Amino acid sequence: MTESQGTAGPSSGTDPFTGRPLRDDPEDVLGRLGGSWTWMLGSALATLVPGILLLVWPDATLQVVAVLFGLYLLVTGAFRFVAVFGQERGERVPGLLISVLFVLAGVLCMRNPLQTIAALSVIVGVVWLVSGLLTAYTAVAAKDLPHRGVLFAAALLGIVAGIVVLALPSESAVALTRLLGLWLVLLGLMEIAVAFAWRSAVRRITA
């Protein structure tokens, strides 16, 4: 990250992974927030909570499922957008693509909650499949990323979830609700594991 000259804000410490001074400009503030394990945990909870709601409410109508899933996609997209700034500039493209994909899919779900089961299944399957592939690419390309194996496992789970939803289109709202709820809970638990793995990596480096 290039440092501005002359009017740069005061240093706010040192990045534990790059060793560079942190400043109070908006990009660095977003970077510290997006790179914190608590932010990752918040993103994981944004995935886990809708999954639990769908599992305990299997008789929800298709409109409710679409709205719940649309909110999940929008909130998760916002979390992932901020998390992008916690990465090196050269590694941000996959994260930006994922966040844009989540937001666009969330808008589609919220804009037309009366859509068919098949349409909702396609939206969900494509989002999980593409985001899983991009996350897997990040895990492979970022050689110095701590706990790459955990992140890669989360990516594989997303890929499998996308393939399952696309290959097994549900014939009823109840079946779709249970399927989406199950995968959201599994993805949320995996993301929680990623967050705690990141916390342990930060603590080990800063110790």
Order of helices and strands: EEHHHHHHH
Using only CA atoms, what is the Rg? 18 Å
Spatial sequence of strands, sheet with the most strands: 1-2
Q: Hey, roughly how much beta strand do the residues contain? A: under 5%
Low-confidence stretches: 1-12, 16-20
Described by strand count, sense and barrel closure, the largest sheet is: 2 strands, antiparallel
Number of contiguous helices: 7
Tally of domains: 1
Question: Total number of β-strand segments?
Answer: 2
What class would the helix/strand composition place it in?
mainly alpha
What gap, in angstroms, lies between the N and C termini?
24 Å
Mean pLDDT: 77
Percent helix range: over 70%
Instruction: Report the principal-axis shape.
Output: elongated
Biased composition (Polar residues): 1-15
Organism: Streptomyces fuscus
Region (Disordered): 1-23
Pfam families: DUF308
Structure write-up:
Helices cover 73% and strands 3% of the residues. It has 207 residues and is mainly alpha-helical. It has one domain. Strands 1-2 form a two-stranded antiparallel ribbon. Strand 1 (11-14) and strand 2 (21-23) form a beta hairpin. Helix 1 (26-34) crosses helix 3, helix 5 (117-141) runs antiparallel to helix 6 and helix 6 packs antiparallel against helix 7. It is elongated, with a radius of gyration of 18 Å. Mean pLDDT is 77; it is low at 1-12 and 16-20. The chain crosses the membrane at residues 37-57, 64-86, 92-110, 117-137, 149-168, 180-198. InterPro entries: Acid_resist_chaperone_HdeD (IPR052712), DUF308_memb (IPR005325). Residues 1-15 have a biased composition (Polar residues).
